Amino acid sequence: MRRDSPAATNRLFPFLLSQPMTSSLPRQATARALQEHFVPTPVSTLVRLALGTGMALACAAVSAQAPAPTATTPTLKEVTVSGEAPPSAIAPPYAGGQVARGSSLGILGTVGTLGSPLSSTSYTADLIQDEQARTIGDVLQNDASVRTATAAGGFSEDITVGGFTITGGDTGLNGLYGLTSASRVPTEIVERLDLLKGPGTLINGIPPSGSIGGSVNVMTKRPADAPLTRVGLGYLSDAQFGASVDIGRRFGEDNAWGIRVNGAYRDGEASIDNGNQQVGLGSVGLDYRGRRLRWSLDAYSQNEDIEEFRPQMGFEPALTVLPPPPDSRSNWFPGTTLKLQDNVVASRIEYDLTDQLTAYAGIGYRDGSAEQMFPSTQTRSGGAPMNGLGSFTVLNGFYDAYSKTTSADIGLR
């Protein structure tokens, strides 16, 4: 195979441009005519150089794509934008959206996790949705120091934080105690779930049951700037179905006003054979956020009707070996029932007196009732705890409770 050198190609190209295929004119006349017609131009010169070097066209292309700046090219100055969220605003989430960068710490307001003097964690609504959690106990177990002290779906949802018990009724609602169900808090109303680990009486006050070693606070949902309409369908265990709706809108100048509506309903057999769990929830939240003034109003109604709920067992104190566990779906206490109803309304207002000082006040009211058939293996109740053979004695009882609670706070921070 013949291969021409670049030099040979360079000599051949101008010859092809200047040599006609046929001509009836004399050679010299033809050459003069071609010279007048094919006058060298910068483009033809560039092409000839490109054939000789093999790189000129590539360099020209790069130069054409990135022209050198001229004296008339405008230059923009660097702009730096910074700011701080209001003391009461919820902290933004970390990457991934499951844990927030700060928590609500009572009289201290919203404090960043890295700058907080206390150990705290704030879980987001995104985490709740990703894990399909039904109660706040399901969410709090993400923390290594938290354990559930009662069975799911029972008469109460108690947890332990570092070994110290926090009862279900000791959960705060937007910083106010006594406004949540004595049994459990549904996740449909939760925007942030703040867990404080360690003594928190000075920060949040004393809860109704006097729980120590930590505190739990629920921040209710608020509408975002972007409109939200979410409808969900659920299926649980053998035959429990449910549906939920979540709607949020903001309106007015600068989206100052907002409304958030949530509803949920579940019904059917859950985790106990021949049992039934019916749960209904409806809530509405209004809020206003101005330059210095912030106001919110929350109202929700929660109803539960449970048949054959999860049993609670006690063991003999001297027991050294536990008996083999039975089927987790077995019903040890047939005939148990639990009915809960809670209606809550709460409002909060805050005003920034200066850039460093905020005045705040909040008030809430709860009307709640609980009725249950609750068997016990406790000796003081007439029962006998489980022994090494798995035998125990149960004494059934009826418990009812009715409460009308008003809770308020006021202060400066």
Helical coverage, percent range: 10-25%
General form: elongated
Which consecutive residue ranges, at least 5 long each, have pLDDT under 50? 1-31, 54-66
Order of strands, widest sheet:
10-11-12-13-14-15-16-17
Instruction: Give the integer mean of the pLDDT values.
Output: 79
Tally of extended strands? 17
| Structural class by sheet pairing and helices | alpha+beta
Strand composition percent: 35-45%
Report on the architecture of this protein.
There is one protein chain. The chain has 413 residues and is α+β, with helices and mostly antiparallel strands. The chain contains seven helices and 17 strands. The protein has helices at 6-18, 27-37, 42-53, 56-65, 125-131, 136-140, 201-204; strands at residues 102-104, 110-112, 119-124, 146-148, 159-161, 164-166, 171-173, 190-197, 214-220, 228-236, 239-251, 257-269, 276-289, 293-307, 337-352, 358-373, 398-412. It has an eight-stranded antiparallel beta sheet with strand order 10-11-12-13-14-15-16-17, with no helix packed on it. A hairpin with a 5-residue loop joins strand 11 (239-251) and strand 12 (257-269). Helix 1 runs antiparallel to helix 3. The radius of gyration is 37 Å and the shape is elongated. Mean pLDDT is 79; it is low at 1-31 and 54-66.
